[in-house]
């Protein structure tokens, strides 16, 4: 049944070490779904997709060195992926040299391919489950595009698996609380735009992502404009222990807008909530973002 695949994909076994992110398997599976959508019968030879997978890990994984060889081999254990070599079925292991030399090629497991072919609604359901569980909403469109997924024209019906996906009502309530606490102003740049008396271009940003046990609480949230929310989730902007804004040294931009909207923010204190009773960002959440998201 479709629900079984959604539950299985939502329960991928991942490497864990404290609070560190390890979205390697979700990113490989999103990429494999994108390739299946484009060419259902194609295999993914490791040597041909290695650069694509490395790009996904570099852009959306944690800010530490990692190799696409690990998910390519280890995803087999979750029952959604298979690997063959020039010698026959089975993965040669997670060593890059062996994957390259053996002609290793991966593809979605046969039962999953059959289920996807039989039900067009399953692919977007799986893709959205992976995106919702492992990444903030501000990055979903970028990740889907880089993974080769076309979710605009696909059947957007989702399988309701309440225990996996966040209640949208909680997100709406958090946004209302955060914008009110911050006086409808971006905590980074002070933008306070409104249309017809209602805030526009302002969002509630989790510091520690909801997908990684970040609570819907003011101590884990900032009111940010759409631009700075995106840059914060992408790791261009961060927070130091004193809640001053940090800017990634990897960021490039020579124009006046890049200078005023990004570079000149470095060292600026983050604006706190207007309400004295509202909690500022907790140090533990700022530290998580600094180690797991910020591209320092």
TrEMBL record:
InterPro entries documented for this protein: DNA-SBD_ScoMcrA (IPR058813), HNH_nuc (IPR003615), PT_DNA_restrict (IPR011396)
Top-level taxon in the UniProt lineage? Bacteria
One matching Pfam family is HNH_2
**One GO molecular-function entry:** endonuclease activity
Tell me the ranges covered by the ScoMcrA-like DNA sulfur-binding domain, including all copies: 4-150
Q: Where is the HNH nuclease domain?
A: 186-239
- Keywords for this protein: Endonuclease, Hydrolase, Nuclease
Q: Which NCBIfam families match?
A: PT-DNA_restrict
| Protein name (Swiss-Prot/TrEMBL) | HNH endonuclease
């Amino acid at each position: 049944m479709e629900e079984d695949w959604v539950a299985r994909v939502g329960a991928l076994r991942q490497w864990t070490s404290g609070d560190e992110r390890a979205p390697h398997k979700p990113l490989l599976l999103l990429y494999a779904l994108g390739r299946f959508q484009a060419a259902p019968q194609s295999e993914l030879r490791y040597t041909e997709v290695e650069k694509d997978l490395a790009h996904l890990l570099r852009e959306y994984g944690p800010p530490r060195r990692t190799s696409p060889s690990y998910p390519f081999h280890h995803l087999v254990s979750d029952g959604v992926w298979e690997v063959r070599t020039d010698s026959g079925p089975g993965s040669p292991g997670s060593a890059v040299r062996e994957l390259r030399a053996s002609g290793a090629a991966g593809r979605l497991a046969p039962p999953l391919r059959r289920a996807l072919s039989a039900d067009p609604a399953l692919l977007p359901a799986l893709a959205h489950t992976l995106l919702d569980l492992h990444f903030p909403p501000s990055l979903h469109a970028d990740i889907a595009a880089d993974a080769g997924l076309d979710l605009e024209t696909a059947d957007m019906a989702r399988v309701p698996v309440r225990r996996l996906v966040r209640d949208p009502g909680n997100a709406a309530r958090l946004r209302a609380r955060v914008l009110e606490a911050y006086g409808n102003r971006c905590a980074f740049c002070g933008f306070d735009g409104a249309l017809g008396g209602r805030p526009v271009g302002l969002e509630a940003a989790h510091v520690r992502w909801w997908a990684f046990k970040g609570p819907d609480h003011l101590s884990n949230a900032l009111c940010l404009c759409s631009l700075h929310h995106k840059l914060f989730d992408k790791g261009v902007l961060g927070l130091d222990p004193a809640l001053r804004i940090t800017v990634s040294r990897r960021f490039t931009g020579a124009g006046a807008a890049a200078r005023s909207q990004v570079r000149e923010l470095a060292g600026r204190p983050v604006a706190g909530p207007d309400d004295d009773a509202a909690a500022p960002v907790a140090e533990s959440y700022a530290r998580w973002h600094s180690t797991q998201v910020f591209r320092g």
